Amino acid sequence: MGDCCETEQGVYVDSLLNLEWLRKSLVREEDSIIFSLIERSKYPINSRLYDESAAASLLHLFIKESEAVQAKTGRYTSPEENAFFPASLPPPQHKLVETFGTYQVLHPSGACININSKILNHYLNTLIPLVAAKGDDDRNYAATAASDLACLQALSRRIHYGKFVAEVKFRDSPQDYTPAILAKDREGLMKLLTFESVEEAIKKRVEKKAMVFGQEVELQENGNYYKVKPELVSQLYGEWVIPLTKFVQVEYLLRRLD
Ligand SMILES: C=C(O[C@@H]1C=C(C(=O)O)C=C[C@H]1O)C(=O)O
């Protein structure tokens, strides 16, 4: 790597350790999450896609194979990315990406935190039934799986940003976090890292975004119809996305002094 790449890497690492940049990334990720939910709502539940009675489900196959392609093309060299099936992923296989280094941004014992199995479970059991209509179209399983993966990857990215947020918060005030980490005081850590006003603003904003992104566009006024219920997105954030991001933060902090 030449100087130029090192400089670029430096800028990238600096961004990942800047709370303002991270909060902007969380805001941008809202767009991806909402758009992907809107896309998923095009298809009915298609529950046979998730049927695990014959070994692994079709969704499982779809995600595993997709992640293998994405690993070969370098997706998981980024510290912002976490695979759903990380065991035995192939290495990058193209010269454009095979020299990508790994970035030492996070504390090593927290860097590998991966709660994607939790995310996948919540997604399958809670989210799909709320977003998709009942029924099965007997056809669009691969397209449905592709939109599931888009939702899952956006949610996973968003939630695992918690690791970087936690690192920045720790570096900003180690004197506040250290005693709670040493005492393994989850509740205390949760209090320290929580900013209620930031969370309230997020819930309001995602509801508004869902209204704007998901409205039916007609030439004539036809009242308000939204492809995904705006209050559902706000609820999803309040009950699930924000709590899981905070869970990641607490897990990370608990390992921060290992
Ligand atoms: C991510 C942060 O930490 C906490 C979690 C938040 C979230 O998941 O959106 C928002 C505010 C904080 O309570 C943050 O401070 O930005």
Describe the overall structure.
It is a single chain. With 258 residues, the chain is mostly helical. It is built from eleven helices and no strands. It has one domain: Chorismate Mutase, subunit A (Orthogonal Bundle). The longest helix is centred in the middle third of the chain and has 32 residues. It is globular and about 55 Å long. The two termini are 31 Å apart. The structure holds ligand ISJ. The site of the ligand C=C(O[C@@H]1C=C(C(=O)O)C=C[C@H]1O)C(=O)O has 12 residues, from helix 2, helix 10 and helix 11.
Give me some keywords for this one.
single chain; 258 residues; mainly alpha; Chorismate Mutase, subunit A; 11 helices; disordered N terminus; binds ligand ISJ
Ligands:
the ligand C=C(O[C@@H]1C=C(C(=O)O)C=C[C@H]1O)C(=O)O
Output the CATH homologous superfamily. Chorismate mutase, AroQ class superfamily, eukaryotic
DSSP strand tally = 0
Query: Which fold name is given in CATH as the topology?
Result: Chorismate Mutase, subunit A
Largest sheet: none
The backbone outline, from C-alpha atoms, is globular
What is the terminal-to-terminal distance?
A: 31 Å
Protein name: Chorismate mutase
Domain Chorismate mutase: 142-249
EC number: 5.4.99.5
Catalytic activity: chorismate = prephenate
